[in-house]
Amino acid sequence: MIWESWNAFLEMGGAAQFVWGSYGVTVLLIVAELVLLRSRRVHSTRRLSRLIRAGQGRKLPEVQGS
Questions:
Q1: What's phi and psi for 62, nearest 5 deg?
Q2: Mean pLDDT score of the chain, rounded to an integer?
């Protein structure tokens, strides 16, 4: 579609609130997902680090094959 001006492009033929609202919600959800992924990664890394430190003084039992 060819737009005669930037204003016409931004108004999207009268459907601007739906189009730009959809883009806004999508961007918001992507940012939220990235924040949650980073938070989970930090939490998992810290937990793994604590588990490694807690197990350093112990000797793990050897697994015998069948």
A1: -80, 140
A2: 87
